[in-house]
Structures are given as C-alpha cells and as structure tokens.
Amino acid sequence: MTIGHRRINVMQKMQESLPGMSLDELSTFVAVVEAHSFTGAAKVISRDATIVSRRMGQLEERLGVRLLSRTTRKIALTEVGTLYYRRVRALLDELESASQEASNFASSPQGLLRISLPVTFGRRLIAPRFPAFLQEHPKIRIDARFSDRYVDVVAEGFDVAIRVGVLRDSSLIARHIASFRTLLYAAPSYLAAHGDPQDPGDLEQHACLGFIHYASWPDWVLKRDGQQRTVRPASSLSADNSESLLQAAIAGAGIVLTPDWLANVAVREGSLVQILTEWQGSGGGGIYAVMPPGRLVPAKTRLFVDDITAAIQAELD
Length: 317
Known about the structure:
By secondary structure, the chain is α/β, with parallel strands linked by helices. The chain folds into three domains: about 5-105, Winged helix-like DNA-binding domain superfamily/Winged helix DNA-binding domain (Arc Repressor Mutant, subunit A), CATH 1.10.10; about 110-180 and about 285-315, D-Maltodextrin-Binding Protein, domain 2 (3-Layer(aba) Sandwich); about 180-280, 3-Layer(aba) Sandwich (D-Maltodextrin-Binding Protein, domain 2). It has eleven helices and 15 strands. The protein has a five-stranded mixed sheet with strand order 4-3-5-15-6. Strand 1 (about 70) and strand 2 (about 75) form a beta hairpin. Helix 2 packs across helix 5 (about 80-105). The two termini are about 45 Å apart.
C-alpha cells in the first residue's frame, strides 16, 4: 500500500468511526487520559484548562456518552471511555505514523521523477547526466519526455521542465540555471576555401545555414555593443533541426548561427571556429528549470536541478 493510500484509509477510518469529531477534540481527550487531569492536559496541548474542559464537553455531547468520571481528586475513564480511548489512541498513532512516512518521503531522494526536456538541448546536455545521477541516487527513477512542445507542467504531471530561451510569465517556480548566446561559426575548411567574413554584410556573399525557427529568418539580426544589424545571408541550406545544421557546418557546408551550448564541443575539438566574434545573434536567452507552484520542492527534484545546474554551468564556462 502506498503512503498516499495509507493516509487516506486512516482518515476514512476516522470519519467512519468518529463522525463529527475534530482532531483537536480527540487529541485533547487522549491528553486528558494520559495526564490524568485537565490541568496536565492543558500543558501538553499548550491551551488553557478552560479550553480543555470545553472540548471534552463538546466531545461527550456529540457522542451522547460520558467518557470520563470526574471527582475532586482525580479523573478516571468510564467503561465506554476506556474502549473509546484505545481506539482513538490507535488511530492517532496510525495517522502520526502515516504523516511521518509522508514527510520522510518528501525530504529524502526517492520515487519517480518526471522530466520534460527540449529535444536537442535535453539530448546533448542533460541525458548524458542520467546514468551518473541514477547511480548516485538509486531510489530515484526517471521518466524523461523529449519534446519541443511547451508542456503544461501541472496538468501533465511533470516534476520539472527545462526551458531554453525567453521564459514566459508564469505562476510556476522558475530557477535560472545559465545564460547562452547565439554566435556565428564555420569550419576551418570552409574559411580556407571561402575566406573569413570581416563584416556582417559579408554574409550576403557566403553560404549560410539557416534555422527556420528563428523569428527573423530568412534574416539574421546581429548585435554588438548596442548596435544592431539585420542581414539576409545567402542561404545554401535551411532546416528546422539545429543539430543537422551544426553537422553541415562541421562538414564545411557553410556558416551557421547557433547557440553556444550546441557548438561548444565542436569548438573545443577544433572542427568549428567562431567568426565575427564581436557580434551575436538576437536569439540568446536563459536556461531555466520550472517546477509546479508550491513552497516545498521535493528532494528528488531539488537534487536533479542542482546536478544539471552544475553540469550546464561547467559546459558553458
């Protein structure tokens, strides 16, 4: 039985067995029995003795029976009070145990972690972290969904979604992981054959590789120190997949404007170099982890976000 089902069953038992009762009244009753006085119970529940007396009166009135036998010297359970105490004590203990298990579950890294990831970014920067993360946290299971669709985190039951670009206004919890830029790259072989552009206007004479999902395409909007230039490059290839354009650029097919997180490995390996280094595209932005609203973030989610934040920041340094 899951913690959630167990807790629901406990509450159903409380409602079925104790109609109309409040947990305050029940806990007060148990405190009176175990402290052997109203004054002692008042100290236990941090309330005035008058409140203890009133709660006991309400409880007995609702039940229609006397639970306690009161004298000037002591308080004792009646026969029905003894039976009632045993049942209430057991139910309160069960509820406390279920609540503790739920708290432990929330604070320790375990359970299913549902993640929404953009296809290219998720495959290149986050998916490689899965094996090590699962090895470090063997009680966590991952359900990763790769899609460039803007998912509804709450309605679709995701624990976290990674978003790249400009973050929309939202009631979700958002954590900024890193920033990225879109830059111009070409293969050394292409530059050796066609020359190195010295000005954005030169791109009109070069084979360029266009990502059709850029809002400005077929134009490239480039920025430098508050200056902006819009150019229409000579497009030898356009596509809706940035990885295919990157591979074409590595093969020497032309110049590509692409995010630095996508090109970094090729730059380190020497298969691409940055050109027009003072200029960058208008398509940069942030990398964010967004989570359902609420004050408490489960440990499994917090650990995952911390892990990928460190990995992504190291990649973009």
